[in-house]
Every structure is written in structure tokens, then in C-alpha cells.
Design a protein that fits this description.
heterotetramer, A mainly alpha, B alpha/beta, C mainly alpha, D mainly alpha, A: mainly alpha, 9 helices, B: Rossmann fold, six-stranded mixed β-sheet, four-stranded antiparallel β-sheet, 30% strand
Chain lengths: 223, 228, 70, 237
Amino acid sequence: MRVLAAVLRKELRLELRTFESVPGMVLFGLTIFVVFHFGLERASVEGDLAAGILVVTLLFAGMLGLNRLYVADEEQGGFDGFLLAPVDRTWLFVAKATALFAYLVALEIVMVPAFALLLLEPGLGQALPELVLVLALTNAGFAIIAALVGAIAVRTRARDLLGPLIALPLLVPVVIAAAGLLEPLLREGGAGGLDAKWLAILGLYDLVFGLLSVAVFDPLLED
Amino acid sequence: MTTAIELAGLGRAYGERAALDGVSLSLPAGSTLVVFGPNGAGKSTLLRILATLLRPTTGTVRVLDGELPREAWKVRGRIGLLGHDPLLYRELSARENLRYHARLHAVDPARVDELLDAVGLGARADDPISTYSRGMVQRAAAARAVLHDPELLLLDEPRANLDPAAAAALEPLLTGTPERPRTRVVTSHDPAGGLAEADVALGLRAGRPVLLAPAAGVTVDQIGALYR
Amino acid sequence: MFADTLPGDQGTPYVVAAYLVFLALLLIYLAIMGVRVARMERDLAELDDLVREGRDTPPSSEQEPERIST
Amino acid sequence: MHGKGLRGLSVATIVVLVGAFAVAAFYAPLDADQGFRQKIFYLHVPLAIVALVGFIVGGLLAIQHLRTREPIWDLRSYVAIHISLILGVGVLVTGAIWAKSSWGVWWLWDEPTLVSFLIVFLLYGTYTPMRFAIEDRERQARYASVFAITAGAFVPICFGAVRAQPQEVHPQTFGSGDLPGPMWLTFLVCLAGMALLFYTLYRFEIAAKLARGRLRSLRRQLLDDAPVQRRSAAPTI
């Protein structure tokens, strides 16, 4: 755990110092809302359309996060510095996934109210606890895939393109489940409950890919 | 008098190109091996292999009491690397960088401040590395390399772009103390200076060891011949 | 016996198209592999000539490159 | 020495495959409502199953590669995925044709197997560009194996997630239970033919690649001019 805390503390401090990821993700997200507004020519949305817009916007903002996740380590010797230490390498993956999870939470703190303000028809009040749970599971899915695929993509030539290209298809099940869960929450006539089936799928996805990533991460660091 | 490093036919190839080929030597603990050779001769590759950062493609490597790459975990944390890349985050300060490495190596944070003063960075410790001069970065990197009191020190031209004051400040750190001698592998382009501090001299040319002998018996122009 | 399994109703062109597409895909793949194998055979032939040449003329004695050693 | 047994295998494949298609065309009874169109089923579904199994096999071979670190496993994983991708093109095209003939539209978002196959295909489509983007051979193999394992585990999950979607408009023609005897038998023969085809192409390509590797090393020994190795996605032994 000491290692996780050390790497995570360094990650968050580096982010606070350079503001590389979160501000960019927030601005990018808000811009996408505007684009959706003009693209769909809708002043307000609800139900499945609202769910779709929110999930897709978070997904693409997450892709920005993915592209920035390992850049500092690749360019400033972070990988070597970490490999020289007598620690289990999987902690780097856990720390990076947790860091991106934190960025996504920070992103959502700004974006969800903005979404309610700009586009969403029904208010958010009544469905907030369920919404937080769904977004948490979705963030976990994004963070796990981004931390794994980011490590694959960062040391290749076309990394800004390759990362999202690999991550997006992998995240389709998360998008399906998240949209399915959010749809009743954002419906006009008041919140429906959470669909257990989709909750199970999202939870299973996070669990399976979490364990899988931990198992296959180490070979990415050897040279 | 155990041996710190044991190499037998060590080779490293990138596809067809052999960066290192057929290096064999045995270095007793506490002694200093100085590696000479033109750029691209494989000096840095050798250091990265010894530092467990690079897997050898042929031959066997035994460093301290671990056979690489299988037992790398055994020796990691007991080796200090000061390479061309300082391995420090430019946006963080020297103190923050060293604190991070201290936590990774489970080293008492107090040692960080102690080292920062030792290398003469006490005043600027909290400014980001990006504001440091080349010499100051090298001092911070040296402090990072010896932070965890390694048994084996790998130094890639440690005195490059260092002013005399900085070199003097780093000297005690990089040589270890008589009662706790440090095994060292140092690469150098300075035949005279290099031979002076060497116990064993190794000459590399295009990845092949063309010269391997106790430093006492090696003359400066033999080293010079490597570069012609 | 075939009457009931092969009528000419409007579905036929699609089925035929599907099987033809599959066949075309297969043929393209085999063609590419064929080109690769042909290139390999040409290289092999070239190497054969070399070996034959080598055997006819005795190999010249090569001079061991001078090494600096103490 | 690499291609031993290939001739026998190729003959067997041709016999079984052509036989299977003949059986499908002449022996299999007409589907009650879809009539003759249903016969694409005997091509499209076996092709899809073999391609998907090929992807998963590629993942298993990649696990073996990470465990043993021998390049031969990376070659096998690469070839398995490479051929599955080629069959995948066939699956998507025949799937579109089947959709057009049965439901009058070239693509159908309600058909879960087609949709999930497209997602899997898009994912594996990045396999070769990713390999090409990494220059160092050894690292290329290692990263490709990590990709193959992750993607291999993704295939069933993707099918599960897409299939769980509510709009199940069209009757599922491929259900193990409801197929009458003769159709089921024909389907099995076609599946066997397609699996044999995959295995033959797999063995064929591996033999070709090993022979090319052998050739290159011979050339290097004889001509002593090591041809500068072009960047390529394919592994070379």
C-alpha cells in the first residue's frame, strides 16, 4: 500500500502542478455538450438521449485522460525510476487507474451539474444516489481500460491515435451498460429504479478487466 | 571477497544489430570497473543491463547475489543508477522527487534533506527541476542514485558538464567510505582520469570487449587506440 | 429429390452472392500467399546459385581482423 | 520440413468444405418461412464461430508466449489472429448479405451477433497497426501478447453485453435446440469444414513464415549482407 500511496501522491501532485489532464477534460466535455446541442438541434434532452449524451461525453473526455496518463513517465524517465525500486510493478497500474478515476470524478463534479443546466430536461435531484453509483462503476471501467491501454500505447509511435482506437471498442460494453442504467434515471417522469441486469454486467466488467489487467500488466514494463 | 558482478558471454541485440556482444568479466565487490569506448560502443547498454532495466539476449549475468533477469527482484533496490537521464520529474522540485524515490525505496525521509545539503542544493531544493542548471540537475540525480545507499553504483560519465565545485561535492557520495566500500561501474571518456580511479579497465568497441585488464597494467594510449 | 431444396425464389441471388464473396475472399488470400511463396522460391534459387558458385571456386583464405589485446 | 502434412490437410479441407456446401445446398431442407435465403446461415454462422474461436485461441497462444517467451508462440498467436481477421471480413460481408436478403436492409443494429462481431472486429483491427507502431521486435511481441489476451477475454464479454440488450426483434435462427435434425447435421458439417479450413490456412501461413525466416538466416550466412530488416507487423523467427 505504501507504494500505491507514493505513486498516487506523485501523480496527483504532478497533475495539480501542471494541470495537464483535468482542465482539458472539463473544457473538452463542455464543448462536446455544445456540439451535441447544435448537432441534435435540441434545447433539452431526457431519457435515453440524455443518458447517451452524458456517457459519450464522459467517454471521450476520458480518452483525453488516457492520452496524458503516462506521457510524463515516458518522457522524463518515470518508468525507469519506478523499475529501479524494489516494488511490485502492478502498483503502477493500480495507481494510474486510481489517478484517472480521481480525474473522472473531478470532471463529473463540474460536468454533471453543467449537463443538468445546459441540456437536461428533468432535474437531477431525485436520482442523485443512483447516479453517483452508476458513474462510479463507469469511471472504474474507463480507468481500468485507460490505465492498461495507455501503457501499451504510450511507447509506440502513433500513441495519441492508437490509445483511443484500442480503448473505444473495449469500452463499448461499459457504454451500453451505463446508458442502460442512466436512461431510467434521466427520464422525464421521474426516476425509475436501477436495472439489476445492467448493474451486474457493469460490475462484472470492472471485476474481470481489473483482475485481467493486473495479471497482464507487468510484461509491459520490461524492456 | 565475494564477486559483485559475474558476466559470461553477455550479449544484447536489437533485431539484427548487436549492441553488446560476448562481454565476460568478474568484478570483486568494492572495486571499480571503468568502461571506455566511443559513443555507441554499448557502454550505456551494459549499464542498463546491470541495473536490471534491460534484459540480456545472450549469455549470463550475475549481479550481487541475483542472476538476471530471473532474480532481478532480489537485487533491485540495492543498485544506484546515475545515467544520462536524471530520472526526475521536471515539474516537481528536487525535494519532492527525492521524497517520492525515498518512499519507493522505503528510505527515511530525513535522509532526503541530509543529501540535498550534501550536494549543495539545500537552498534551491523546493524549486522545480525545470529551473535547474545542467550541473544542478546532475547533483539532484546523483542524490537520487545514492539515496537508498546502494551496494552497487552504476555511473554513466558522472563528471560530464559538472563544474569543479559540483564534482568535489559529489565525490564523497559517489565513492563510498573505506569501511563501507561501494562496488562501482563507471563509464568514462577521459583515459587519464578514468584509469586513475579504476581497479579494472574494460574497452568496448562496437559492442565487443577489445580490452579487459587490471587498470595498473593498462597505458593511456591503449585507451586512446579505442577511439581511433 | 432436389426439387424441394433448390427452388428459384427471389432469395437465390443473395445466397449465391454470399458464397461467391466467401470464395473470392479465399482466392485473394491464396493469391497473396502464392506471391509470397513465389518470392521465396526466387530467393532460394538465388541462394542455390551462390552455393554452387562457392563450391566451384575454392574459398579465399580470410585474414583474421587484427584485435587490440594486451 | 515445415510443410509436412500440409498436402494431406489441404485435400481433406477441400473435400470436407465442398462436401459441406453441397450438403447445405442439396440435402438441407428449406426453412419454413425464410425459404432458400436461410442457406446463407450455413456459411455465415460457421465462419463467425471459427473466426471468434480463432481470436480466443490467439489469446491463449499469447498467454503461452508470455509464459515461455519463445518467439514461436508469438508467431502462432499472430497467425491465428491474422486469419481470424480475414475470415472476419467474410463474416461481416456475408452477414450484411444475409441481413439484406432476410430483412431487406444491409445492416441491422438489432441483430446482436452481427453487432458484437463488428465491435470485436474493430478491436482486432487495431492489432496489426499496433504491432507496426512498435519497432523493437521483442517488445512488439510482448505488447501484442498483452493485447491478444485482453482482447481474447473481451470477446465473450462483448457478446454477453450486446445480447443483453432488450430489443430482441428477430427470431434467433441459430439456436441449438430448435433446429430440426437434418439442418443441425448440415450445420455441423459446415462448421467442421470451416474449422478445418482455418487450421489449414493457419498451418500454411506458419510454414511459410518459418521458411522465410530460415531463408533470411541462410541468406545472411551466405551473402553476409544482412538485408536491413524493414519494419513490419509480422513477427520474424
